[in-house]
Amino acid sequence: METESEPYVRLATLRQLHQVVADLNTARSLADTLQTVADGVVNGLGYELACVNLVRPDGDLVVAAFAGNPAAEALITGRVGSRESWERRLTMGEAWGALRFIPYSEGWVLDEDDVPQWYTEGPEPRFEDEWHPSDRLFAPMYATGASGGELIGVISVDRPRNGRRPGAWGREALQMYAFQAAIAISNARLRANMQRALVRLEREQQALRASEESFRQAFEYAPSGMAIAEMGGDQHGRILRTNDALCRLLGRPASAMRRYSFSDLVHPEDIGTLLRTSAEGGRAELRFGRRDGTYVWVSLRNSVVADAADGPRFLLTHVEDIEERKRRELQLAHRASHDSLTGLPNSAELRARLSARLCRRPHAGQPSTVDSLDAAYDNSGLYAPGHAPGNGHGPVMGGHTGMHGEGYDHHVHTVAPPEEADPDDGTKGLAVLFCDLDGFKSINDRFGHHTGDAVLIEVARRLTNGVRDGDTVARLGGDEFVVLADGLGRADAQDLAVRLRNAIIPPIRVDGRAVRVGASFGIGWAHCGMSADEVLHSADQRMYIEKRSRAKQHRRAG
To answer: Which of 44, 93, 246, 495 could form a disulfide with 20 if both were Cys (CB 3.0 to 4.6 A apart)?
Structure first.
């Protein structure tokens, strides 16, 4: 620029500066403003490359806009340089007013810092003021426009089009442009903040202006069930209003729903869950009764609604049908705990049920009647799922802290009947019958796994039919089965083993062919102080003793 007459240069630069500054004021957003700043340096101030580094809330500077080279733009846009490295740059080199020029002879020390930068190639300068590819020129932007204000960003420029370092007027133009760019960026930020504030205010006003009709539309046409119920007082939970989706789900008309409270609709076993969740933010999964007498699993979510600051409060309840998900969950739980071939409890479920009856502390004697009553009535909730007293399983140990810890007061200890040599004192125990099929391997080898699987399925059926409803028949693996039978004496257990063996012996027909297997039973006794594995090992050993004690030809029916 300075090669022509100075007045013409200044006039042309002023025109260009005026145009690019005018462009700054037309940007619609902060991002547009930053890009306009970078483009203005290239289009109006005579540089081939320009970069805008914006100060982030954490103080570091991010490359927010780039102009002049798409490849360099893709390389460094969005990258971050630390505030410490930038402070170092802005104190090096030569101060050209508010600008900072770092000649190539000093700038090599910056090649390895963390400030994003691009590299240009070119020949060594041939004369004193020729621009070197490694020269750096920075124009800081301050919030107040003066160098004493808060730094909001830095404009980096490179490669003047005339190939020379800018003269006094070029420096002044860049400094003036940085001043105007700082104002434009500050205004853009202010506009963005004001727009966000206006949006928030408008949203709040829309919420305040929301009428009963808008709420009715959202409520009535919600795809899932919704209800409004009273909160607190004698009428807590009484249904005031329901939408069509909830009426369809429960098969009840809206007029009938208003005669009920949620406690009238919930399954009796879930009433406690409902009461615990009838509060702000309460959530639960429970069963609601349909008009036809069936129950459906739902997800219940409550929130509190107030008409005014001190007005009455209501429960807004969202009811979602989760019947299909619950069905899948039950199927998955069943698959995890049951044998896929026979449908019997598997090894893991067997050990879980057995462990539920055992505690770590051995028990020397039989529990008294008072202890049993205390355990039955004073500590509900100690039963494992599906192991309530009514199905033949005892209470589960709860809250045990260790071998000698507290928390055993309400545990009814599992004890074993006296040994056969001792007099029978009437003690009943938890018998563990370990069953191993005799001759099963030969069936598998001769007729294939299809026949073997059919035999296992039939044996499982016969064992299940031969025990009481509260007993457990499990498949341990292969051709091994285990029966847990509570409340038996030693003679009772022996009689049960004989009955089950006789049930297994009859021929089993598979694809028109009759095959037969025998069974060897070992009887172990579970008692507190033993682990589930120890109990099963004991029964297993007794089974092998029993198997060896019988002649081979008598172990299999044929």
So the answer is: 44
Q: What is the rounded distance in angstroms from the CA atom of residue 412 to the CA atom of residue 397?
A: 8
CA 441 to chain centre: 46
Q: What angle do CA 231, 236, 237 make, to 5 degrees?
A: 90
Can you tell me the distance from the alpha carbon of 158 to that of 48, in angstroms, rounded to the nearest whole number?
Answer: 6
DSSP 368: P
Phi-psi region of 100 (alpha: psi -120 to 50; beta: other; left: phi over 0): beta
Cα separation, 240 vs 250, in Å, equals: 16
Mean pLDDT of the chain: 81
Residues 6+ apart with CB under 8 A from 519: 435, 436, 437, 438, 459, 500, 501, 504, 505
Q: Find where tokens 């810890």 sit.
A: 405
Band the pLDDT of 408: cuts 50, 70, 90. Answer: very low
pLDDT tens track for 19-44: 777 878 788 888 899 999 999 888 88
Buried b (16+ CB within 10 A) or exposed e, 489-525: bbeebbebbeebbebbbeebebeeeebbbbbbbbbbb
The string of pLDDT tens digits covering residues 410-439 is 567 777 777 765 666 678 889 999 999 999
CA gap 399, 397 in Å, rounded: 7
At which residue do the structure tokens 């205010």 appear?
201
Query: Rounded CA gap, 366 and 363, in Å?
Result: 8
How far is residue 505 CA from its own chain's centroid? 52
Contact 147, 96 (CB under 8 A): no
301 Rama class: left (phi>0) / alpha (psi -120 to 50) / beta: beta
* Amino acid present at 496: L
Model pLDDT for residues 470-526, shown as the tens digit of each residue = 899 999 989 999 999 999 998 999 999 999 999 999 999 998 889 999 999 999 998
- Please, are residues 301 and 315 in contact by the beta-carbon 8 Å criterion? no
Helices 168-209 + 30-44 axis angle, to 10: 160
- This prediction's pTM: 0.45
Q: Residue 374: pLDDT above 60?
A: no
* Sign of the alpha-carbon dihedral angle for 504, 506, 507, 510: negative
**Nearest of 431, 423, 435, 540 to residue 494 by alpha carbon:** 431
**Sequence-distant (≥ 6) Cβ neighbours of residue 281 within 8 angstroms:** 302, 303
Residues in contact with 195: Cβ distance below 8 Å, sequence separation at least 6, in sequence order:
none
The share of the chain scoring above pLDDT 90, in percent, equals 35
Single out the residue of 533, 535, 536, 505 nearest to residue 519, CA to CA. Answer: 505
pLDDT-derived band at 104 (thresholds 50, 70, 90) equals confident
Cβ-proximal residues to 251 (8 Å cutoff; 6+ apart), any chain:
290, 291, 292
